[in-house]
Amino acid sequence: MRWRAGTPGMVVLAALVAGDLAPAAAGGSAADPAPAGCRRSAFRVVLDVGHTLEVPGAMSARGVTEYAFNLKLAEAIQQALVASGFDNTVRLITATAPWRGLFERAARANAMRANLLIAIHHDSVPDELLETWQYEDRENHFSDRFSGYAIFVSNNHPDRAGSLAFGHVLGKELEARGLHYTPHYTLPLMGRHRHQLIDADAGVYRYDQLVVLMQTRMPAVLLEAGSIVNRQEELELATPERRQLTAQAVAAAVEDFCSARARALAAKSTPSTRARHPATAAH
Ligand SMILES: [Zn+2]
How many whole angstroms from 230 Cα to the centroid of ligand 1? Predict the structure, then answer.
Protein backbone atom coordinates (compact mmCIF):
# COMPACT_ATOMS: atom_id res chain seq x y z
CA MET A 1 0.00 0.00 0.00
CA ARG A 2 1.16 3.53 -0.51
CA TRP A 3 0.09 6.11 2.01
CA ARG A 4 0.18 9.41 0.19
CA ALA A 5 -0.50 12.70 1.93
CA GLY A 6 -3.55 14.25 0.35
CA THR A 7 -5.12 11.12 -1.07
CA PRO A 8 -8.60 12.22 -2.13
CA GLY A 9 -11.57 10.81 -0.29
CA MET A 10 -12.50 7.41 -1.58
CA VAL A 11 -15.16 7.44 -4.23
CA VAL A 12 -18.35 6.07 -2.80
CA LEU A 13 -19.74 3.60 -5.26
CA ALA A 14 -23.39 3.17 -5.84
CA ALA A 15 -25.28 0.10 -6.96
CA LEU A 16 -23.77 -2.36 -4.55
CA VAL A 17 -26.17 -5.19 -4.18
CA ALA A 18 -26.77 -6.07 -0.57
CA GLY A 19 -26.91 -9.72 -1.48
CA ASP A 20 -27.93 -12.78 0.35
CA LEU A 21 -24.84 -13.26 2.50
CA ALA A 22 -23.63 -16.82 2.72
CA PRO A 23 -22.81 -18.05 6.20
CA ALA A 24 -19.13 -18.19 7.15
CA ALA A 25 -17.72 -21.26 5.52
CA ALA A 26 -14.53 -21.83 7.49
CA GLY A 27 -14.79 -24.33 10.22
CA GLY A 28 -17.57 -26.12 8.36
CA SER A 29 -19.68 -28.81 9.88
CA ALA A 30 -18.16 -31.88 11.45
CA ALA A 31 -20.27 -34.11 9.22
CA ASP A 32 -18.39 -34.48 5.96
CA PRO A 33 -20.63 -35.96 3.26
CA ALA A 34 -18.77 -38.19 0.82
CA PRO A 35 -18.98 -36.17 -2.43
CA ALA A 36 -18.06 -32.88 -0.78
CA GLY A 37 -14.33 -32.64 -1.47
CA CYS A 38 -12.54 -29.53 -2.62
CA ARG A 39 -12.03 -29.74 -6.38
CA ARG A 40 -8.67 -28.04 -6.51
CA SER A 41 -8.35 -27.75 -10.27
CA ALA A 42 -11.78 -26.17 -10.50
CA PHE A 43 -11.13 -23.70 -7.70
CA ARG A 44 -9.64 -20.60 -9.28
CA VAL A 45 -7.54 -18.28 -7.16
CA VAL A 46 -6.65 -14.87 -8.55
CA LEU A 47 -3.50 -13.27 -7.11
CA ASP A 48 -3.81 -9.57 -7.78
CA VAL A 49 -0.31 -8.09 -7.90
CA GLY A 50 -0.69 -4.72 -6.18
CA HIS A 51 0.26 -1.53 -8.07
CA THR A 52 1.87 -1.20 -11.50
CA LEU A 53 5.33 -0.91 -13.01
CA GLU A 54 4.80 2.82 -13.53
CA VAL A 55 2.97 3.57 -10.28
CA PRO A 56 4.81 1.08 -8.08
CA GLY A 57 3.35 1.80 -4.63
CA ALA A 58 5.53 2.29 -1.57
CA MET A 59 9.33 2.58 -1.61
CA SER A 60 11.30 0.29 0.71
CA ALA A 61 13.84 1.51 3.26
CA ARG A 62 16.54 0.63 0.71
CA GLY A 63 14.85 2.12 -2.33
CA VAL A 64 13.17 -0.95 -3.87
CA THR A 65 9.59 -0.57 -5.10
CA GLU A 66 6.67 -2.31 -3.46
CA TYR A 67 5.61 -3.55 -6.89
CA ALA A 68 8.88 -5.53 -7.20
CA PHE A 69 8.20 -7.17 -3.82
CA ASN A 70 4.57 -7.88 -4.75
CA LEU A 71 5.53 -9.47 -8.06
CA LYS A 72 8.05 -11.87 -6.50
CA LEU A 73 5.76 -12.88 -3.65
CA ALA A 74 2.82 -13.47 -6.00
CA GLU A 75 5.05 -15.73 -8.08
CA ALA A 76 6.04 -17.77 -4.99
CA ILE A 77 2.40 -18.04 -3.91
CA GLN A 78 1.32 -19.14 -7.37
CA GLN A 79 3.99 -21.86 -7.37
CA ALA A 80 2.91 -23.09 -3.93
CA LEU A 81 -0.75 -23.19 -4.99
CA VAL A 82 -0.03 -25.00 -8.25
CA ALA A 83 2.13 -27.50 -6.33
CA SER A 84 -0.85 -28.16 -4.03
CA GLY A 85 -3.11 -28.88 -6.99
CA PHE A 86 -4.65 -25.41 -7.47
CA ASP A 87 -3.36 -25.34 -11.03
CA ASN A 88 -5.94 -22.81 -12.19
CA THR A 89 -4.31 -20.05 -10.13
CA VAL A 90 -3.83 -16.81 -12.06
CA ARG A 91 -1.52 -13.91 -11.35
CA LEU A 92 -3.27 -10.68 -12.27
CA ILE A 93 -0.83 -8.03 -13.48
CA THR A 94 -2.35 -4.69 -14.41
CA ALA A 95 -0.67 -1.92 -16.36
CA THR A 96 -3.53 0.57 -16.09
CA ALA A 97 -2.92 3.20 -13.40
CA PRO A 98 -5.41 3.77 -10.58
CA TRP A 99 -8.31 4.57 -10.40
CA ARG A 100 -9.30 2.95 -13.62
CA GLY A 101 -6.82 0.13 -13.04
CA LEU A 102 -8.41 -0.80 -9.73
CA PHE A 103 -11.81 -1.32 -11.35
CA GLU A 104 -10.15 -3.22 -14.17
CA ARG A 105 -8.63 -5.67 -11.67
CA ALA A 106 -12.01 -6.41 -10.11
CA ALA A 107 -13.71 -6.69 -13.52
CA ARG A 108 -11.08 -9.13 -14.78
CA ALA A 109 -11.38 -11.31 -11.68
CA ASN A 110 -15.18 -11.31 -12.04
CA ALA A 111 -14.95 -12.20 -15.75
CA MET A 112 -12.67 -15.14 -14.88
CA ARG A 113 -15.30 -16.39 -12.44
CA ALA A 114 -12.60 -16.71 -9.81
CA ASN A 115 -13.47 -18.39 -6.52
CA LEU A 116 -11.14 -16.27 -4.42
CA LEU A 117 -9.11 -13.09 -4.88
CA ILE A 118 -6.02 -12.27 -2.85
CA ALA A 119 -4.51 -8.84 -3.44
CA ILE A 120 -0.77 -8.99 -2.72
CA HIS A 121 0.83 -5.92 -1.15
CA HIS A 122 3.67 -4.87 1.15
CA ASP A 123 3.19 -2.31 3.85
CA SER A 124 4.53 1.17 4.50
CA VAL A 125 3.51 3.91 6.94
CA PRO A 126 1.98 7.34 6.34
CA ASP A 127 4.60 9.82 5.06
CA GLU A 128 4.56 11.84 8.29
CA LEU A 129 5.84 8.83 10.25
CA LEU A 130 8.83 8.21 7.98
CA GLU A 131 12.39 9.01 9.07
CA THR A 132 15.40 9.63 6.84
CA TRP A 133 18.67 7.71 6.57
CA GLN A 134 21.51 7.28 4.11
CA TYR A 135 21.72 3.97 2.29
CA GLU A 136 24.35 3.48 -0.41
CA ASP A 137 24.97 7.23 -0.45
CA ARG A 138 21.35 7.99 -1.12
CA GLU A 139 18.70 9.46 1.09
CA ASN A 140 16.01 6.88 1.87
CA HIS A 141 13.01 6.75 4.16
CA PHE A 142 12.18 4.18 6.81
CA SER A 143 10.19 3.47 9.95
CA ASP A 144 11.30 0.66 12.25
CA ARG A 145 8.36 1.12 14.60
CA PHE A 146 6.06 -1.53 13.12
CA SER A 147 6.45 -4.94 11.52
CA GLY A 148 4.27 -7.86 10.54
CA TYR A 149 1.47 -8.66 8.16
CA ALA A 150 -2.06 -7.28 8.00
CA ILE A 151 -5.18 -8.59 6.26
CA PHE A 152 -8.02 -6.37 5.05
CA VAL A 153 -11.61 -7.12 4.08
CA SER A 154 -14.50 -4.85 3.10
CA ASN A 155 -17.87 -4.81 4.82
CA ASN A 156 -19.28 -3.65 1.47
CA HIS A 157 -18.37 -6.93 -0.20
CA PRO A 158 -21.34 -9.01 -1.39
CA ASP A 159 -19.79 -12.07 0.31
CA ARG A 160 -18.42 -10.39 3.40
CA ALA A 161 -18.76 -13.58 5.45
CA GLY A 162 -16.72 -15.54 2.92
CA SER A 163 -14.02 -12.87 2.80
CA LEU A 164 -13.82 -12.79 6.59
CA ALA A 165 -13.71 -16.57 6.80
CA PHE A 166 -10.77 -16.71 4.39
CA GLY A 167 -9.04 -13.79 6.16
CA HIS A 168 -9.32 -15.72 9.41
CA VAL A 169 -7.77 -18.95 8.13
CA LEU A 170 -5.03 -17.00 6.34
CA GLY A 171 -4.11 -15.13 9.52
CA LYS A 172 -4.04 -18.36 11.52
CA GLU A 173 -1.84 -20.11 8.94
CA LEU A 174 0.61 -17.17 8.93
CA GLU A 175 0.67 -17.21 12.73
CA ALA A 176 1.26 -20.98 12.73
CA ARG A 177 4.47 -20.30 10.76
CA GLY A 178 5.82 -17.89 13.35
CA LEU A 179 4.68 -14.66 11.70
CA HIS A 180 2.76 -11.98 13.57
CA TYR A 181 0.34 -9.30 12.50
CA THR A 182 0.92 -5.62 13.07
CA PRO A 183 -1.51 -3.96 15.49
CA HIS A 184 -0.58 -0.42 14.44
CA TYR A 185 -3.62 0.27 12.26
CA THR A 186 -5.68 0.72 15.41
CA LEU A 187 -3.39 3.46 16.81
CA PRO A 188 -4.55 7.09 16.93
CA LEU A 189 -1.29 8.20 15.25
CA MET A 190 -2.54 6.52 12.05
CA GLY A 191 -5.10 9.32 11.77
CA ARG A 192 -7.32 8.80 8.75
CA HIS A 193 -5.46 5.58 7.98
CA ARG A 194 -6.77 3.96 11.12
CA HIS A 195 -8.74 0.76 10.68
CA GLN A 196 -10.96 -1.32 12.89
CA LEU A 197 -9.48 -4.68 13.88
CA ILE A 198 -12.43 -7.00 13.26
CA ASP A 199 -10.61 -10.29 13.93
CA ALA A 200 -8.04 -9.78 16.68
CA ASP A 201 -7.24 -13.50 16.65
CA ALA A 202 -6.04 -13.46 13.03
CA GLY A 203 -5.09 -9.83 12.28
CA VAL A 204 -8.00 -8.96 9.98
CA TYR A 205 -8.91 -5.29 9.59
CA ARG A 206 -11.89 -3.62 8.04
CA TYR A 207 -11.25 -1.47 4.95
CA ASP A 208 -14.62 -0.95 3.36
CA GLN A 209 -13.77 1.23 0.38
CA LEU A 210 -10.87 -0.61 -1.21
CA VAL A 211 -12.03 -1.04 -4.80
CA VAL A 212 -10.72 -4.58 -5.38
CA LEU A 213 -12.38 -5.69 -2.16
CA MET A 214 -15.78 -4.16 -2.83
CA GLN A 215 -16.17 -4.64 -6.58
CA THR A 216 -15.28 -8.32 -6.70
CA ARG A 217 -18.00 -10.94 -6.48
CA MET A 218 -15.84 -13.76 -5.10
CA PRO A 219 -14.48 -13.63 -1.52
CA ALA A 220 -11.60 -11.17 -1.51
CA VAL A 221 -8.87 -10.12 0.91
CA LEU A 222 -5.88 -7.83 0.70
CA LEU A 223 -2.68 -9.12 2.28
CA GLU A 224 0.02 -6.70 3.39
CA ALA A 225 2.76 -9.32 3.69
CA GLY A 226 5.02 -7.20 5.90
CA SER A 227 6.58 -3.75 6.18
CA ILE A 228 9.20 -2.88 3.58
CA VAL A 229 9.97 0.44 5.31
CA ASN A 230 11.04 -1.46 8.43
CA ARG A 231 14.78 -1.94 7.82
CA GLN A 232 14.99 -5.37 9.43
CA GLU A 233 11.74 -6.74 8.02
CA GLU A 234 12.64 -5.51 4.54
CA LEU A 235 15.73 -7.75 4.61
CA GLU A 236 13.60 -10.72 5.65
CA LEU A 237 10.88 -10.03 3.06
CA ALA A 238 13.55 -10.00 0.35
CA THR A 239 14.57 -13.61 1.11
CA PRO A 240 13.16 -16.69 -0.65
CA GLU A 241 12.65 -18.24 2.83
CA ARG A 242 10.21 -15.57 3.97
CA ARG A 243 8.40 -15.69 0.63
CA GLN A 244 8.10 -19.46 1.01
CA LEU A 245 6.71 -19.10 4.51
CA THR A 246 3.99 -16.74 3.32
CA ALA A 247 3.33 -18.81 0.19
CA GLN A 248 2.92 -22.02 2.23
CA ALA A 249 0.54 -20.24 4.59
CA VAL A 250 -1.57 -18.99 1.68
CA ALA A 251 -1.66 -22.46 0.09
CA ALA A 252 -2.74 -24.07 3.39
CA ALA A 253 -5.40 -21.38 3.91
CA VAL A 254 -6.76 -21.88 0.37
CA GLU A 255 -6.96 -25.63 1.00
CA ASP A 256 -8.88 -25.08 4.25
CA PHE A 257 -11.19 -22.58 2.64
CA CYS A 258 -11.88 -24.62 -0.49
CA SER A 259 -12.72 -27.68 1.65
CA ALA A 260 -14.99 -25.68 3.94
CA ARG A 261 -16.82 -24.18 0.95
CA ALA A 262 -17.28 -27.61 -0.60
CA ARG A 263 -18.70 -28.95 2.65
CA ALA A 264 -21.06 -25.98 2.96
CA LEU A 265 -22.23 -26.45 -0.62
CA ALA A 266 -22.84 -30.18 -0.10
CA ALA A 267 -24.78 -29.51 3.10
CA LYS A 268 -26.92 -26.97 1.25
CA SER A 269 -27.69 -29.28 -1.69
CA THR A 270 -28.50 -32.34 0.42
CA PRO A 271 -32.12 -32.01 1.55
CA SER A 272 -32.70 -33.01 5.13
CA THR A 273 -34.57 -36.23 5.91
CA ARG A 274 -37.41 -34.16 7.22
CA ALA A 275 -37.68 -32.13 4.01
CA ARG A 276 -37.49 -35.24 1.83
CA HIS A 277 -40.20 -37.02 3.80
CA PRO A 278 -42.66 -34.35 4.84
CA ALA A 279 -45.41 -36.95 5.18
CA THR A 280 -43.36 -38.84 7.79
CA ALA A 281 -42.85 -35.68 9.74
CA ALA A 282 -46.59 -34.95 9.64
CA HIS A 283 -47.54 -38.28 11.13
ZN1 LIG B 1 0.29 -1.55 -1.81
Answer: 15
How far is ligand 1, taken at its centre, from the CA of residue 102, in Å? 12
Q: How far is the CA of 26 from the centre of ligand 1 (A)?
A: 27
pLDDT tens digits, one per residue of 152-171: 999 999 999 999 999 999 99
Residue 270: per-residue pLDDT: 73
**Tens digits of per-residue pLDDT, 50-64?**
999 999 999 999 999
pTM of the model: 0.84
212 alpha carbon – ligand 1 mean position (Å) = 12
Distances (CA, A) of 235 to 34, 222, 276: 46, 22, 60
**Is residue 17 packed enough to be buried (19+ CB in 10 Å), middle (13-18) or exposed (0-12)?**
exposed
Domain regions of the chain by residue span: 40-282
Ligand 1 mean position, distance from CA 227 (Å): 10
Domain 40-282 is of which CATH architecture? 3-Layer(aba) Sandwich (3.40)
